[in-house]
Structure formats: structure tokens, C-alpha cells
Amino acid sequence: MSEKEISSAVIKRLPRYYRYLGELLRNNVDRISSQELSKKMNVTASQIRQDLNNFGGFGQQGYGYNVEYLHTEIAKILGLDQENKLIIVGAGNLGQALANYDFSKKGFRIIGIFDINEEVIGKEIGGLVVQHIDKMKEVVEENGVNMAALTVPKTAAKGIAKSLVEYGIRAFWNFASIDLQLSKEEVVVENVHLAESLMRLSYNVNKQRNKE
Known about the structure:
The termini are far apart. By secondary structure, the chain is of the alpha/beta class. The mean pLDDT is about 90. A hairpin with a 2-residue loop joins strand 5 and strand 6 (about 130). It has helices at about 10-25, 35-40, 45-55, 65-75, 95-100, 135-145, 155-165, 195-210, and strands at about 30, 65, 85-90, 110-115, 125, 130, 130, 145-150, 170-175, 190. The strands form 3 sheets. The chain has a 6-stranded parallel β-sheet with strand order 7-4-3-8-9-10, with helices on both faces. A two-stranded antiparallel ribbon has the order 1-2. It has 2 domains: about 10-75, Orthogonal Bundle (Arc Repressor Mutant, subunit A), CATH 1.10.10; about 85-195, 3-Layer(aba) Sandwich (Rossmann fold), CATH 3.40.50.
């Protein structure tokens, strides 16, 4: 039997479930109903049940959801129960910001950060020393790195990504202003366009202005 295809909308909501459930755990909440969770997440109770039913449901009628159990199961679905090793390519402002962020509690460990700019090579950022891009292959292969964050100019992104695929990288978190597309089916890409997100915010601000 082929694996069930999960819609991108459901996948997009999973990290939100994980985050809200984590907050409930920190507040010592043991169980929660879909109705209560819907009020916190601004998603209908019916949508929550439908989303979770894609993976087995997890709830009990009359009881709701065990918060710790559901949090743990969603972590497994997202692959956060395993350590994902990540490198950052590009030690500019964005790359440095990522390096300084603590991803360890979310199942990610940054192994290295790389650049070609001699002014930043050797600089310590987030506990890591910036290395020359020529060192990527060695670091990826020796540490079993499976993910790369690209914060490089769009003209360089595709060539760097192709090299990284050859080294064994199978997932890209791409911040370069280009939709990165790679031919290998086993390689996945998450294209992040910060400017587009800001434009969507601007649209909503403009819509509010037009109502006034």
C-alpha cells in the first residue's frame, strides 16, 4: 500500500500544533479538547480533528488529547525525535542570525558555517568558527550532515546546492532569492522568501487602510 499523501496545508499546520502543545506542557496542562485547542490556534475543532486523523487521530471521545503524548507523536511525524545535522552556507547577516539561534531544542544541530569572504572566515559565530567553503565536503561527510541552509546570493545558490548533493546533503533550507529546484527526487527543498512574506503583510495593511 502506498503512503497516504498529506496536503501541504496540513503539513504547514503541524509545526503550529507542536509549538502550542509545547506551551501547554510548560504550563502543566495534561489534556485538551479539540475545541479548547481551536480557541488557542484560531483553527476550527473540526479542522484539527481532520488534520490529526491523517496520522491516526490520537484523541479519545469524551477525553480529548493527552498533551504530552500528542506532542511526542507530532515530533515523530516531523522527524524531531531524531537529530538533524545542519550546515549554514553564507556567513552574512542572515547566516549569522541563524547560527546564533538555538535550534537544539527543536531537534537540529548546526555543525558548521561556511563562506568565501576572508573577512568573516575564522570569526566565531554562535560557538562555531566560520570555515572556507572548500571545507564543506570534509565536514559534511565526516559528520553525516543531512541538511543545509543557504544564505548566499541567488547566482551562487544552484551551483553550491549541486555540490552539496554530491557530498550527501538531502535537504535544503533555501533563503537565496531563487526557487531552488534540484533534479534528484530524494532531495527536498524548502524555499523561504522573506520579501514575499513582507509583501503579504503589506497587502493586509493596505486592505485595512482601504476599509478606513
